[in-house]
Write a structure and sequence with these properties.
Number of helices: 17
GO cellular component, one term: plasma membrane
Subunit structure: Composed of six subunits; NqrA, NqrB, NqrC, NqrD, NqrE and NqrF.
Family: Belongs to the NqrB/RnfD family.
Mean pLDDT: 85
Order of helices and strands: HHHHHHHHHHEEHHHHHHH
Structural class: mainly alpha
Helix content: 55-70%
Strand content: under 5%
Strand order of the largest sheet: 1-2
Number of domains: 2
Subcellular location: Cell membrane
Number of strands: 2
Keywords: Cell inner membrane, Cell membrane, Flavoprotein, FMN, Ion transport, Membrane, NAD, Phosphoprotein, Sodium, Sodium transport, Translocase, Transmembrane, Transmembrane helix, Transport, Ubiquinone
Shape: globular
Largest sheet: 2 strands, antiparallel
């Protein structure tokens, strides 16, 4: 029924039809619901069971693992604070819905999930709608199809946001990421910066209080609590424990995700499970992941050997760098972006190692930015074409010498 309806209105969206300017929107709905009718029938192309749409859906599905845990964790951390405060009297539309559907019991999985959903879903909805409008607008002007790449950009940007980020800033951030980070360069496949990280970096520098202040990491009005990463920068690790605002934080707590932070960045375990799936499907490059880990480990070990009496971050072991901040999230979902990352196998090693080295350098040496993975990836994005160029030239010279 739906297939027949779409076929009946399709001529109106082709050239000469009265809705031809909206072809990109029609095509996005049609291919989103059904398999495209245009398929390669000759032997001139490599045939594979996976295409761009399936790649993006697979990445999106893996990112949703972090989203579901993030919603539960937001609710759990917030309900613990509310229980400690001894009050459930809060204003705002979110709490009106929460009060109608559930309560504020941290022992209830449902209560925690609903509470977290009231903060994540609006952020994701604003991201998807505003970013999608920009995508459709540029596709319509250029006469192109709407690319599925935004499907992933939207979820990654939303998961990288603090849970208490104002929705108008969410709209500004994704607008900057899509327009300036991708569309001005020609769209998907032509951007040299990761769009989701570009939008987050814009917010980080333009509105730092809303992206790095102690009050933005928990979804409870009036509560202030520093993240584990900022505590590491100021106090370091004491007897294997980080003295975070919400209480002592062990490495296992951080690995499992039992801490404050951006929506989808807290659970290293969940993120690594998603990473194994993506690398097993050969969607994410294991060379980039391994290179980033090696760069991070080597640099942190060097700082550990040097030591410092004034900078506690010098003495933070590499395995703490892995589980705090957005390192794991960036490692799996951001560094492996197939467009902005290096393309050659050897170039991927160099690209990943540069990210690992720069992450620790920014975290340890630069006191203004306790988080380093975001800036490190954007920095490495600029060098990815250079790595590929030198690798290709080296291969050409070696083959010429061989011949």
């Amino acid at each position: 029924m739906l297939r027949k309806f779409l076929d009946s209105i399709e001529p109106h969206f082709h050239k000469g039809g009265k809705y031809e300017k909206f072809y990109a929107l029609y095509e996005a709905v049609d291919t989103g619901l059904f398999q495209p009718s245009e398929r390669t029938k000759t032997t001139a192309h490599v045939r594979d069971g996976i295409d761009l749409k399936r790649i993006m859906i697979s990445v999106w599905a893996c990112a949703m693992l972090a989203a579901f845990f993030g919603m539960w964790n937001i609710g759990y951390q917030s309900n613990l604070i509310i229980a400690d405060m001894g009050t459930t009297e809060f204003e705002g539309w979110r709490h009106a819905i929460i009060g109608a559907l559930t309560s504020y019991n941290p022992a209830s999985t449902w209560d925690n999930f609903v509470y977290g959903a009231m903060f994540f879903l609006p952020i994701y909805l604003v991201t998807f709608v505003i970013g999608g409008i920009w995508e459709v607008l540029f596709a319509a002007v250029r006469g192109h199809e709407v690319n599925e790449g935004f499907f992933v950009t939207s979820i990654l940007f939303a998961l990288a946001c603090p849970p208490d980020l104002p929705l108008w800033l969410v709209g500004m951030g994704i607008s900057f990421g899509v327009v300036i980070g991708k569309e001005v360069f020609g769209g998907t496949g032509k951007n040299f910066l990761n769009p989701a990280l570009t939008g987050r970096a814009f917010l980080y520098f333009a509105y730092p209080a809303s992206m790095s202040g102690d009050m933005v990491w928990t979804a409870v009005d009036g509560y202030s609590g520093a993240t584990a990463l900022s505590v590491l920068a100021s106090e370091g690790v004491q007897n294997g424990v980080v003295q975070a605002a919400a209480g002592p934080l062990t490495w296992w707590d951080a690995f499992l995700g039992n801490m404050h932070g951006s929506i989808g960045e807290t659970s290293t375990l969940v993120i690594l499970i998603a990473g194994v799936i993506l690398m097993g499907m050969k969607i994410a490059s294991w060379r980039i992941v391994a290179g980033t880990l090696l760069g991070m480990m080597a640099t942190s070990l060097i700082f550990n050997l040097i030591g410092s009496d004034t900078n506690p971050f010098f003495n933070v072991p590499w395995y703490w760098h892995l589980v705090v901040g957005g390192f794991a999230f960036g490692l799996i979902f951001m560094t492996t972006d197939p467009v902005s990352a290096a393309m050659t196998n050897l170039g991927r090693w160099y690209y990943g190692m540069l990210i690992g080295v720069m992450t620790v350098l920014i975290r340890v040496v630069n006191p203004a930015f306790p988080e380093g993975i975001m800036l490190a990836i954007l920095f490495a994005n600029l060098f990815a074409p250079l790595f590929d160029h030198f690798v290709v030239q080296s291969n050409i010279k070696r083959r010429l010498a061989r011949g």
